[in-house]
Amino acid sequence: MPNPTAAMLVIGDEILSGRTRDANMHYLAGELAKTGIDLKEVRIVSDTAEAITDAVGTLADTYTHVFTSGGIGPTHDDITADCIAAAFSLAIDVRDDARAILEEHYQRTGTALNEARLRMARIPEGATLIDNPVSAAPGFTLGNVHVMAGVPQIFQAMVASVLPTLTGGAPLLSQSLRIERGEGDIAGPLAKLAQEFPDLTIGSYPYSHSGTFGAHIVIRGHDGARLDAAMQKLSRLFPE
Amino acid sequence: MPNPTAAMLVIGDEILSGRTRDANMHYLAGELAKTGIDLKEVRIVSDTAEAITDAVGTLADTYTHVFTSGGIGPTHDDITADCIAAAFSLAIDVRDDARAILEEHYQRTGTALNEARLRMARIPEGATLIDNPVSAAPGFTLGNVHVMAGVPQIFQAMVASVLPTLTGGAPLLSQSLRIERGEGDIAGPLAKLAQEFPDLTIGSYPYSHSGTFGAHIVIRGHDGARLDAAMQKLSRLFPE
């Protein structure tokens, strides 16, 4: 059975403007590889309702799972939950279970649960809450869309809450070999190897630093024995 | 006149698999902000013909410019040029001008221009070459799509070659203020400020480290005087 597939949607004005580098993508990619859910696409869109709603709709129709990051805090630019509800044509309002979580948290920390903070209890109809052990305000899963915070520490905690609830497949394995030769000399034999192992993906990533150059050859796939076989052939093709 | 818009397409198995963190996106975002071309979307897709061709077609129809990174080297997994040609239904073959650039470069470095390296002279019909001062093999512009290498050093050199040929707009300016208060306390006044300045985008990015927490408020827009006015109001709302 083929692995489930996934896309990630980053709500990301702060990335598109060049201000920050995304960290959640790299983290999620690694976790999904281990879980055996194949990450096929990432989209970063701006913090506008149309961009978010359109992207969620398309990605949810195309992949087994969609993971979003960002835009579920208490400020005016946090519009993700409303956009997800709109994408599924579902109602959204403050929900009692989410409100109870916030009430308990803010009571304990001696902070007022004001109108802005209460926005974080707005959850679309029919969604399941995702636990947030860092700062309480929950994410949620609606259909095949998993909605999580953008702050890396909270995003990672939410990924840890949600991934064990999903059915994974065979983990994505990878092995790599550094070859200190120009890609142009590696390319011919490598193409033949790729043809011999159509069930694996073989990538070539050139590098050059301080006068030496070459390529990292990365072999990926779900069957460890096949990876070993391909890597042994590769090593024989390019002895050190 | 509104600024031209842009999308970036990263051909990125090595990112989707969790192996590497993308660096080109952050670089391009910063350069486009300075040039006054508004980066609206980034997509990262796997190294398959269908994924690349579909994404290029959609993005080229939607935005003023599309910038791609990756997949134009000499190895079997370098299929970007062929996919771009397919997306525009144009022929692609080794082109004399690109071949001449490679011949000169490899002659000078004493390297054989073999069949694999010659693949890097495959350029779609009607495309304009993008200069590569690092390793010679050119990128190209076809219609509104700018096709560049994935190696960061080469990508950056190609961006420097191509951006001066494009018509930009007003640079994206930004100012930020760190406020050491919870986002829930900032949210109310901040929403009112955002309503007063609908021509600016005001983002709130929470942080917490070593016991202190707060948010970076980032105000972005194209009119420096408006940014100054909004930032002055913000500072008065939250005096240190």
Automatic annotation (TrEMBL), chains A, B:
CDD domains registered for this protein in UniProt:
cinA
Give residue ranges for domain MoaB/Mog. Answer: 7-170
Quote the protein name from its UniProt record: Molybdopterin-binding protein
Higher taxonomy: Bacteria, Pseudomonadati, Pseudomonadota, Alphaproteobacteria, Rhodobacterales
Q: Per the UniProt entry, what species is this protein from, by scientific name? A: Marimonas arenosa
Pfam families membership? FLAD1_M, MoCF_biosynth
Kindly give the InterPro entries that the UniProt entry links to this protein: CinA, FLAD1_M, MoaB/Mog-like_dom_sf, MoaB/Mog_dom
